Amino acid sequence: MRQRELSGGAGIQVSQLCLGAMAFGTEVDEETSFAILDRFVEAGGTTIDTANCYSFWVPNGVGGESETVLGRWLSRRGGRDGLVLASKVGSGPGAHGGAEGLAPEVIRTQLAGSLQRLGVDHLDLYYSHREDRDTPDEQTLATFHEAVTEGKVRTLGASNHAAWRLAETRALAEAKGWTPYTAVQQRYSYLLPRPATALPEGGHVHASDELLDLVRSRGLTMFAYSTLLWGSYTRPDKPLPEHYQHPGTERRLQALREVADELGVTVNQVVLSWLIGGEPAIVPIVGVSSVAQLDEALAAVDLDLPTELRKRLDEAC
């Protein structure tokens, strides 16, 4: 699997696919999680994404399970050499029923907890998991920069931020001489939700055209989550959510099926290849519950879409 340099000047190389570990320790048991992780690394994958809050919302979940399983796997593996570990803060349950936010004490406490659960002394990439407009940006950004200068974090990212907020916080950090957000993580796939619809998943923010333009023009690195729409591209038992039901969806699905048939590959592989080879190039985060599902995704890294087929996909709307 090829690697690409993460923006931000930290010298970090990330793999074409990022393994999403959200379900590890809750919906995916530890034995299966270890098998998936082993296969991902065997295939040349290096980049693993988690968060302090995964997965408090599932039955019996409290948050931190994913990081704990990853920590046990890293211990069994004998360390984190060759791996890029990313985690997040800001979306865990807060004291008053909302999200925990990005106040300095939250960032410091939650970072310490993530490092402890993972059994490492630093993260390669640390995200602001969602916006916190109740905490002054100066406080949040100064605390993230503090984590970088202390060696606990190598570089920073922002997830689920509006494009204008990302631009604003980057400008503030640069003016202060602090580490700016240079990685972006947003919901994105080939199919697009109905315009002006509110996503029902709390905290999810879909990548807008403005955000993609910002990523492209400023040379940022974009990671995309929910890339395969929870199996809805291929599984009859996983119908597309209602907010994807609009005329453009069927035209795009038809184009996807035609391209997959012509190339003799799966629709999921076409989606992942379309993301990897697009402009801007995107690092898809794939969350799987079996090695077989991972193997299907891994095959997409060797799939180069011919120009005419990519154009057909791009122009279906």
UniProtKB/TrEMBL annotation:
GO terms for cellular component: cytosol. Gene3D superfamilies: NADP-dependent oxidoreductase domain. It comes from the Bacteria. Residues 17-316 form the NADP-dependent oxidoreductase domain. PANTHER family: NADH-SPECIFIC METHYLGLYOXAL REDUCTASE-RELATED (PTHR43364), OXIDOREDUCTASE-RELATED (PTHR43364:SF6). This is Predicted oxidoreductase. The lineage of its organism: Bacteria, Bacillati, Actinomycetota, Actinomycetes, Micromonosporales.
